[in-house]
Design a protein that fits this description.
Elements lengths: L2 H6 L6 E5 H5 L11 H7 L8 H33 L10 E7 L5 H12 L8 E5 L7 H6 L14 H12 L5 E7 L4 E10 L4 E5 L25 E6 L2 H17 L17 H24 L8 E5 L5 E7 L2
Helix pairs in contact: 4-5, 8-9
Length: 322
């Protein structure tokens, strides 16, 4: 066979690549249950989303996830039948992971999915948690010398986060998680989030697709992503994400940072250019290295990769088939 024939052979991939139009057509006749006002409330600061985006991108995704939930329930039933455990594990929550860089818009994606999926009659109880609640408290980060690496995998209590999702997956009646405040930039002492037997749990965070670390004995342990039934990676170019990050910082400086209790209030007391220089430094020394070293390498572990263009609009989607 000529050498040129080898070069023209398409690269093998477990994903099917879909344009926006191809994906949008897959919503079939799924009705749009959200109003423009509801979408506006769900939209994150600096994110650009409207009813067309919800109809074209997130409505087909909610339909796909509804099919996944039904198929997963059927598979669990078949496994229980095989094991002779009829009735066991009934109502096991379906867990979805949403990953992506800081400022890429993954929180908006998670909130939209929660709103859309809860409208399906088969699974009205949809809960959403962010991994921020499992960041180590500031005192602990300072003691470990990790304040400059806040958001990196080692800045989280990964064991507690995995145990939290494992307990929900196991069907425990109540599972609690710490609460994080972006206002004080720390865990809120004594405050807990309680999750009670959801039909679907959405776990959103920059590092949720990280593989498990090996144990002291060298054996691979069960990681957070091993409990996911479906996962979404929100993707964009680092250049676009940086621009969104800086734009969001400017808006926060004019709004939330003005609160006297805000950790970042000091950046309202200097010029805009001085505050933006801090934001650029944070992007350059923390967020970009974390994206390139830890977040982006997990993209290939996702069930669905949602690729955004410079205007925050989704352009292409890659859905895992194999």
């Amino acid at each position: 066979m000529p050498r040129s024939a080898h070069r023209s052979r398409p690269e093998a991939t477990p994903y099917v690549d879909l344009t926006r139009a191809e994906w949008s057509a897959l919503r079939d006749k799924t009705p749009l249950p959200l109003s423009a006002e509801e979408v506006e409330k769900l939209r994150g600061l600096g994110d650009v989303i409207d009813l067309d985006e919800v109809r074209d991108i997130y409505l087909p995704l909610s339909r796909l996830l509804n099919l996944y939930v039904g198929a997963t329930d059927g598979l669990r039933g078949a496994l229980n039948t095989f094991l002779g455990e009829q009735g066991s594990q009934s109502g096991t929550p379906f867990v979805i992971g949403v990953a992506g860089s800081v400022a890429v818009g993954k929180s908006t994606v998670a909130r939209l999915l929660q709103a859309l999926l809860s409208r399906w009659p088969e699974h009205p109880r949809v809960e959403r948690v962010t991994t921020d609640g499992f960041l180590l408290p500031t005192k602990e980060l300072e003691a470990r010398g990790l304040m400059a690496r806040k958001g990196f995998p080692e800045s989280y209590d990964r064991r507690a986060l995995t145990r939290f999702v494992a307990d929900i997956k196991a069907g425990k009646d109540e599972v609690t998680a710490p609460v994080y405040s972006h206002l004080i930039y720390d865990i809120v002492p004594g405050e807990k989030l309680t999750v009670r037997r959801p039909d679907i749990l959405i776990v959103e965070g920059i590092n949720v697709l990280q593989p498990a670390l090996p144990g002291l004995d060298g054996r691979t342990r069960v990681g957070l992503a091993d409990y996911f039934d479906f996962s979404v990676y929100v993707d964009a170019s680092p250049e676009d994400i940086q621009r969104w990050y800086l734009n969001r910082f400017k808006k926060l400086r004019q709004t939330a940072f003005q609160d006297p209790s805000s950790y970042f209030r000091k950046y309202t007391q200097v010029t805009e250019e001085e505050s933006l220089e801090y934001a650029r430094r944070m992007w350059r020394t923390v967020n970009l290295p974390n994206l390139l070293q830890n977040v982006a390498p997990t993209r290939g572990r996702a069930t669905l990769i949602v690729r955004k263009g410079p205007d925050h609009k989704v352009q292409r989607l890659n859905l895992r088939k194999l």
